């Protein structure tokens, strides 16, 4: 007589457990790594000479040539990590305050793109990346990255999303992928956001994104 009620309760408990597990949103760990490398090369030929005075009073010239060829490569790497719910958004803070020399770039870019009126002067600028992640299957993730800045001008503070510089990727879970914008402008903005410098010869920046389903 007690077998059926117990069986019904066990079945109900199993259904509740499955429902809770299905309703729990999956998490995606997003890592943005910035790898910067610099190569310094030095090559040259230098001559040197002199004379040797012999015991008999003769003079014999002496000369040699030195060849220098050195190459030094240095690498630096830094990364930022954030957890994003499936289908949700989160913000990666890159810098709360950029150097004064970079403020002008963001002010000019925001003004030229129509985000702020001409004549507005930025005092402080912070940079970040808005990350949206969606799980597509067992091992595939769609990641959307949008550069953002927060700035102080006059008596107020505002935030700008550079939507035209958004980069969207479909990646395999746990596999690093180099990412940059699809246009020259977005590539430039991403490099400025992440602190990379392209204009210096012998230096390069590589931005790598890894999305891992938790």
By secondary-structure content and strand pairing, the structural class works out as alpha+beta
Percentage of β-strand residues = over 45%
Q: In percent, how helical is the residue content? A: 10-25%
Largest sheet properties:
5 strands, antiparallel
Query: What is the H/E string?
Result: HEEEHEEEEEHE
N- and C-termini, Cα separation: 45 Å
Please describe what this structure looks like.
The chain is α+β, with helices and mostly antiparallel strands and 214 residues long. It is built from three helices and nine strands, in the order H-E-E-E-H-E-E-E-E-E-H-E. The protein has helices at 3-23, 100-112, 184-194; strands at 27-53, 59-85, 88-95, 124-135, 140-153, 156-161, 167-172, 177-178, 203-213. The strands form two sheets. Strands 3, 4, 5, 6 and 7 form a five-stranded antiparallel sheet that branches. A hairpin with a 2-residue loop joins strand 5 and strand 6. It is flat. It starts with a helix and ends with a strand. 18% of the residues are buried. Mean pLDDT is 79; it is low at 5-13 and 15-21.
Keywords, please?
single chain; 214 residues; alpha+beta; 4-stranded antiparallel β-sheet; flat
Write the layout of secondary structure elements.
Elements: H1 3-23, E1 27-53, E2 59-85, E3 88-95, H2 100-112, E4 124-135, E5 140-153, E6 156-161, E7 167-172, E8 177-178, H3 184-194, E9 203-213
Antiparallel strand pairs: 1-2, 1-9, 3-4, 4-5, 5-6, 5-7, 8-9
Short summary:
The protein has helices spanning 3-23, 100-112, 184-194; strands at 27-53, 59-85, 88-95, 124-135, 140-153, 156-161, 167-172, 177-178, 203-213. With 214 residues, it is of the alpha+beta class.
